[in-house]
Specification:
elongated; glutathione binding; single chain; alpha/beta; three-stranded mixed beta sheet; glutathione transferase activity; about 35% helix; EC 2.5.1.18; Thioredoxin-like_sf; Glutaredoxin; 8 helices; glutathione transferase; 3 domains
């Protein structure tokens, strides 16, 4: 039986799952859930994800879905047979300089979202951001930079993709280095396949 992915094309979480499936070269059927018509709250969708959140993933009788914990809710919905929840745990690595205001802003955002990360300090005075080791992970040497598991700079891909869709392309094109950086990030075959679906 084919893998089915239930999600919304406007959902960044759905886009991440699509990119992961494309990265692993797994074929799937995409079923669009219309959030504006509250299809994610319909009994049919709630049978796939009792929390009413997209995306939901189905492979035969196996159902996978992400369950976001709400700190203000004590109600835990029981899982049925063959249902698995996946906690959102990413091994985020943040490469940055403690003297950089951009790095401090990113650290504050991660703390606000209660996302755990490993901080790797990049010493700008020693030009560590220009070292071959750092440039192999981050060819443009910008600080701060992220890695999240196998999909390094994944959050950045989604942000750039959304910005290009909302007519910010001229801002990227006006800056050759930024344009090259965005093109390199978005050229990964799995990302092209997922974002064009």
């Amino acid at each position: 039986m084919a893998i089915k992915l239930y999600g919304a094309v406007v959902s960044t979480n759905t886009l991440r799952v699509m990119a992961c499936l494309a990265e692993k070269d797994l074929h799937y059927e995409f079923i669009n859930i219309d959030l504006s018509n509250k299809e994610h709250k319909s009994p049919g969708f709630l049978s796939r994800n009792p929390f009413g959140q997209v995306p939901a993933f189905e492979d035969g009788d196996l159902k996978l879905f992400v369950a976001f914990d709400d700190e203000n809710t004590d109600v835990k919905k029981p899982l049925k047979k063959n249902e698995i929840t996946l906690p959102i745990i990413m091994a985020i690595k943040l490469y940055g300089a403690v003297v950089s205001t951009n790095t401090l802003r990113v650290m504050a955002c991660l703390a606000e979202k209660d996302l755990h990360y490993e901080f790797i300090n990049i010493d700008l005075s020693n030009k560590e951001h220009k070292s071959p080791g750092f440039l192999s992970r981050n060819p443009f040497g910008q600080v701060p930079a992220f890695e999240d598991g196998d999909l390094k700079l994944f959050g950045t891909k989604i942000i750039i993709h959304i910005n290009l869709l909302v007519n910010a392309k001229r801002l990227f094109d006006a800056r050759p280095h930024v344009s090259a950086w965005a093109a390199e990030i978005l050229s990964r075959p799995a990302w092209v396949k997922a974002s064009s679906a």
